[in-house]
Amino acid sequence: MSFPDNHDGNQKVGKDPTAGISAGHLRSIIERVENLEEQRAALSGDVKDIFTEAKSAGFDVKIIRQLIKVRKMDPAQVEEQETMLDIYRRALGM
């Protein structure tokens, strides 16, 4: 991999492309991201286990996911969606 230093694409001889990069800071950033990705994977497994528990207890996981989504929404937005859903149901004779 080359790192052009001027506009004609030629690399200056003796120029270190890593100059000015703090290896320690870069390593810290990478390690922090890797750590968070590991935590996210562990949490994802925990969430999956909870849904498995819910399913084995007889709950409908799809409905639980919908409830979680609704609980995250603004109450006015929820009311608006429920009103529109009701209007559409009535229009379809449901």
From TrEMBL:
InterPro entries the UniProt entry points to: GapR-like_DNA-bd
Task: Tell me the GO molecular function terms.
Answer: DNA binding
Q: Where is this region: Disordered?
A: 1-20
Pfam families named among the record's database cross-references = GapR_DNA-bd
Q: Where is the composition biased (Basic and acidic residues)?
A: 1-15
Annotated GapR-like DNA-binding domain ranges read 23-93
Which regions form coiled coils?
26-53
The alphabetical list of record keywords is: Coiled coil
Mind telling me what this protein is named? Answer: GapR-like DNA-binding domain-containing protein
Q: Which species is the source of this protein? A: Acetobacter pomorum
Phylogenetic lineage: Bacteria, Pseudomonadati, Pseudomonadota, Alphaproteobacteria, Acetobacterales
